[in-house]
Amino acid sequence: MSTIAYDVEAVRARFSSLRTGFAFFDGPGGTQVPDSVVEAVSTYFRESNANVGGPYGTSIRTEALIEQAHETAARFLQCEAENVAFGANMTTLNFTLTRTAARGFRAGDEILVTGLDHDANVSPWLELAHDLDLVVRFAGLNKDTTVDMDDLARKLGERTKVVAFPLAANSVGTLTDAHRIAKLAHEAGALAWADAVHYGPHGPIDVAALGVDVLICSPYKFFGPHLGVAFARSELLDSWRPYKVRPAPNEPLGRRFETGTLPHELLAGLVAAVEYIESVGWDAIRAHERALGERFLEGLPDAYALHGLPTMDGRVTTFAFTHRARQPREIATGLGDRGIAVWHGDYYALEVMKRLGLEDGGAVRAGIVHYNTEGEVDRLLEALSDF
User: What would you report as the CA-atom Rg of the chain, rounded to the nearest whole angstrom?
Assistant: First the structure.
């Protein structure tokens, strides 16, 4: 057990939404936000609401906020501010950037994705394959839901342009060996294109250490507002021709991929969300989540089958499971009636569900984050035992 001091009740006191008695295990679909994020968004509207370019106070403050948001996102991803771009959400931003990158692709070029991916890092490539006559290949999974790295390596070739993969599976919680995948991609002359949406609330991201060329995430999964955030290497941003209006600036590099007026109030929320995480600390977050994850795994009733890794090694605290006699929708609905929020279905992780043979009803998904408590985990386990 970790000796890191962590006061979960003090953390929960910073979230008005956690005072209702409802137990939120729906973090994989979007986390709750601390009051500081709510206040940051509303303060922007009250005090700084304006478009950029105006020679007056609110516009000047908005421009300063945009700079601060890029710097804060860069701190979160451990990169430079010029390498950050914002968009409406991860999916929209990914469709934009994949199309930008593909301007130099040719018929027969290949994209390699994995069986762990959320469809937001699959369908953009499938649509490009349809438009440009590309080939999309899928790296398979091992029985334990880890990526079959031998299969991934076999499917790399001289026509491979991109290897797209998640840092963590939003379905079963499995982590990938991102550094190894990026290395294999680069050895084949391909880009390493990472989806960090699900990993975002569970641990620090260091794009340089990962070795990725592009990484996209969503602040609403790490206690912030609905927004998309992307990192890309400077060489790529400088070489890509962006889809943008002509008067929009080309510098800093990441800004050329931000179309239209940014949601300034949400940038204020992003800044507050990152500052909140920094105030709690990743060491405390990870230790608390691991302890709760172990508690859940040890207590999962025998009537359920866990899909994914059986211990906390190699995973985050997201768990997919099915009952031997009850449908996932029935269980999730019943838990909701008891004030416990979980998900059911495929969660846009189509290939994982195919691999697990769960295409029809999917699975129940419970996601633990750092504001959950031992008591909530016990309450979830007790409720599951009643089905």
Answer: 21
Separation between Cα atoms, residue 233 and residue 250, nearest integer Å: 15
Q: Is 324 exposed, middle or buried (0-12, 13-18, 19+ CB in 10 A)?
A: exposed
**pTM exceeding 0.90:** yes
Task: Note whether 387 and 324 are within 8 A (CB).
Answer: no
Please give the backbone phi and psi of residue 381, each rounded to the nearest 5 degrees, phi first.
-65, -40
Q: Secondary structure of 308-359 in the HEC alphabet?
A: CCCCCCCECCEEEEEECCCCHHHHHHHHHHCCEECEEECCCCHHHHHHHCCC
**Assigned token pair, 130:** 């349809």
Tokens for 99, please give them. Answer: 């199309």
pLDDT in tens, 131-176: 999 999 999 999 999 999 999 999 999 999 999 999 999 999 999 9
Burial status of residue 106 (CB atoms within 10 A of its CB: 0-12, 13-18, 19 or more): exposed
What pLDDT does 249 receive? 82
- CA–CA gap between residue 294 and residue 305 (Å, rounded): 16
Distant-in-sequence, close-in-space partners of 93: CB < 8 Å, separation ≥ 6: 85, 86, 87, 216, 228, 229, 230
Place of tokens 């709760």: 292
Q: What is the chain's mean pLDDT, rounded?
A: 96
In the block, tokens 């009850």 appear at: 326
Distance CA 216, CA 77 (A): 10
**From CA 164, how far away is CA 125, in angstroms rounded?**
9
Write the single-letter amino acid at 257.
F
CB 269 within 8 A of CB 225: yes
